[in-house]
Structures are given as C-alpha cells and as structure tokens.
Amino acid sequence: MRCIFQREWSVAMRNPGQWVNPLLFFIVVVTLFPLGVGPSPQTLSTIAPGVLWVSALLAVLLSLGALFDADYSDGTLEQLALSGQSLPVIVLAKVLVHWLLSGMPLLLMSPVLGLLLNLPSQAIPVLMVSLLLGTLSLSLIGAIGAALTVGLNQAGVLLSLLVLPLSVPVLIFGSSAVAAAAGDFAASGQLLALLALLILALSLAPLMASLALRNGVSGGT
What's the rounded Cα separation, in Å, for the pair 158 and 162? Predict the structure, then answer.
C-alpha cells in the first residue's frame, strides 16, 4: 500500500491539472452563485449549505475519471491485478491519494467560500467536518463507478449516472448538518450519519471496486 501510495503521489505531482482543476471548479461554481441569485446576505446564507455541498460533489466527480484510466491504458492495472497483491488494498491507496489531492483542497478552501456566502461562523467547523467525512465517502463511492466504467469509451456520462444516485445520502446529510449548525441547532445526528456512511463505504467500496477492475481487465484481455 505504501509503494502504491508513493507511486500515485509522484504521478499526480507531475500532472498538477489532476488536482488543480477540481479546486478551481469548486471555487468558480461557488462564486458564481452570488452573481446569479443576488448579493442579499439572507439569501446567500440560506442557500450556502446546499451550494457548497453540491459544488463539492461535482468537483469530486470531475476528478474521478482519471482514477484508473491511465493505469488501464498503459497496462499497469493488468499487472497489478496479476501481481498477487491485494487489489482492494491497492484500490484503497489510490482512493486515498485521490482524496488528498481532490477532497482535501476543497476542505481547506471551504471556510473562505462559506464566509463569501455569508454562512454563520458557528457553522464553519461543522462544514469542515462534514466535508471531511463526506468527501472521503464520495471518493470511495466514486471508485466503484470508475472501476465499473474503466476502459469504456465516453465513460464520463455513465460514471456520473452511476455515482450521483449513490452520493445522494452523503449530499443530504452533509448539507443538512451545515444548515442545522447555521440555524443554531445540533448537527451531531447528521455527522454521525455521515460517519456511518463513511464506515460502510470504507468496508465495501475497495472490495467492490477491485471485483469490477478484475472483470474489466479480464474483459479487456
């Protein structure tokens, strides 16, 4: 797992667009909303939880296509599948690098964008915790969709159709946690639900993605 992590990290550092593009997309989408709905602080505060979370979901989805495609194209994925090493562990290492490069920048940028949308200051910590749990879950869920569509032509639309329905619970609990905190209500229930979803995704996603990758590799050969 350490070797795969180091390899994926090195490859990503040589291709900065892989992690810069989702962050720029996140910033651009969020900053467009005040221009579209008007600068009213009350309006921006009301829509802020949903805007931030939908933007984060789309930004993570934007980066999922590159999760396995490069390794499939050059034959690395086939070699990994035949190496005898645990493929779920390899998938988990790749997902962790994906999250550090796509989810973590969104998490760090979210307080600034939250203040831009007039999100109350007491909701900022809840926003960051919800994005921490939620973006990890989205990366794991996205790995399943990326594995199912690996090697397919024009897989982007199919990947979106597969991942978006599975991401709806994460979106609902994440945005509702921020909205509750913004209204001075307790958000612990929603955060615990996000934690439960993360544990479920962490338990199932690497195994399901590895099975899909084996099928994809065997089908390609």
Answer: 6
CA dihedral 2, 107, 21, 161 (to 10 degrees): 90
The structure tokens 């933007």 sit at 55
SS3 117: coil
- Only one residue has tokens 């789309």, namely 58
Average pLDDT, the chain: 87
Closest CA to 171 of 18, 73, 55, 20: 55
Question: Do residues 32 and 25 make contact, with C-beta atoms less than 8 angstroms apart?
Answer: no
At residue 7, φ and ψ (nearest 5 deg) are -65, -50
CA dihedral 190, 55, 19, 90 (to 10 degrees): 40
Residue 103 corresponds to which amino acid?
G
Give the integer Cα–Cα distance in Å for 94 and 97. 5
CA pair distance 183, 217, nearest whole angstrom: 49
Q: Which residue has the tokens 């509750």?
A: 180
Residues whose CB is less than 8 angstroms from the CB of residue 18 and which lie 6 or more positions away in sequence, other chains included? 12, 63, 66, 101
pLDDT tens profile 165-182:
999 999 999 999 999 999
Give yes or no for a contact between 121 and 184, defined as CB atoms under 8 angstroms apart. Answer: no
> Which sequence spans correspond to the domains of the chain?
2-220
pLDDT at 219 over 70: no
Task: Output the six-digit token pair for 12.
Answer: 């990503």
